[in-house]
Design brief:
The structure holds 2 protein chains of 2 kinds. Chain A is of the alpha/beta class. Chain A contains 9 helices and 10 strands. In chain A, helix 1 runs parallel beside helix 9 and helix 5 runs parallel beside helix 6. Classes of the chains: A alpha/beta, B mainly beta. The interface between A and B is medium-sized, with 33 and 26 residues.
Chain lengths: 257, 67
């Protein structure tokens, strides 16, 4: 039986969240959103560019997705908290994908600043979804701090390397009391399926779709992949075995020579 | 005239000037905009009554793809 994803009391039929970064055009984004079936999408805040064409907010509204503003490129808790407050003003939502980056080249999270920002934003009434490293202890600390979900990376943002440490992810899922959203690193559909098979509650991805040769086709693949992974998880897979186990009964085999 | 730093660039605004004037000068879109003055958020409802003074830094932000 399928159940909805529930984060902070809000229900989502889709377990795929689309990051809007990297799409070449707003049209391409709109088509991918439709094909993905996603009900939530990220966006960011940057300095006004008067030459910018089209309205991202309108595209997302037409797609009927909930907005999840991010704090991308913030390197301190202080900047991330201010950015979250700016996003709350701009988009009238207290949901935030909290990112506090610790390193320019890998874009890995800064765990110390991340936890500090999460605590501050939770205290200020935000619904905080932190992008975190795949560290089970940090995930627990973030959940304990009142985050509405935890969003461990599979591998670095935009790397397409999939899930580098499935064992850590299993540990996070095993003890999580909030939804676990695999965020970052997805390269292709099987990565998304694996995330769901490992027990993640949802998958957030951007580059894998946005930078694919055919984004809408890949968005559809991701929708199916997430659904397949979820079904497989819920269905209860067979254990790994070293030796074969016959699927055709050995009894009653005729003697033919 | 007063001189502020608007989205990283020196800009002259009329005297007196409010945050709403800076938003207009930045050619911000209608929706999905947020403003910080010297790193502090100014809520939309307060733009018209928040005056700016010489040398202040104003960031006028809009939605972009990301994440």
């Amino acid at each position: 039986m399928t159940t909805d994803l529930e984060i902070a009391g809000r229900r989502f039929a889709s377990r795929l969240i689309i990051g809007t970064g990297g799409f070449r055009t707003l049209d391409s984004l709109a088509q991918a959103l439709e094909a993905s079936g996603a009900e939530m999408a990220t966006l960011a805040l940057r300095r006004v560019d008067p030459s910018a064409r089209g309205s991202l907010v309108e595209v997302l509204e037409r797609a009927g997705v909930q907005l999840l503003p991010n704090t991308a490129h913030c390197f301190t808790a202080r900047d991330a908290v201010t950015t979250a407050k700016l996003a709350r003003e701009a988009f009238e939502t207290d949901w935030v994908k909290l990112e506090v980056i610790g390193d320019d080249r890998t874009l890995l999270p800064d765990p110390v600043e991340l936890l500090e920002a999460a605590e501050e934003l939770v205290a200020d009434g935000f619904t905080v979804l932190p992008y975190t490293s795949d560290d089970p202890v940090l995930a627990r600390r973030l959940a304990d701090a009142g985050c509405a979900a935890v969003m461990p990376l599979g591998s670095p943002i935009g790397s397409g390397m999939g899930i580098a440490n499935p064992y850590n992810l299993r540990l996070i899922v095993e003890e999580a009391e909030v939804p676990v959203v695999l965020d970052a690193g997805i390269g292709t559909a099987s990565d998304a399926t694996l995330a769901m098979e490992l027990g993640c509650d949802a998958v957030l991805l951007a580059s894998a779709v946005a930078r694919a040769e055919h984004p809408a086709r890949m968005a559809r693949a991701m929708r199916l992949a997430v659904e397949a992974g979820r079904d497989a998880r819920e269905a209860g897979r067979i254990p790994h075995r070293l030796y074969a186990r016959a699927s055709t009964p050995p009894e009653g085999v005729p003697e033919l020579s | 005239m007063i001189s502020v730093v608007l989205n990283g660039e020196a800009r002259e605004l009329g005297d007196p000037a409010t945050v709403a004037d800076a938003v207009a000068a930045a050619e911000a879109p209608e929706r999905g905009v947020a403003v910080a003055v010297d790193g502090e958020v100014v809520s939309r409802g307060a733009w018209g009554r928040t005056s700016l003074s010489d040398g202040q830094s104003v960031e006028v932000l809009q939605a972009v793809q990301g994440g």
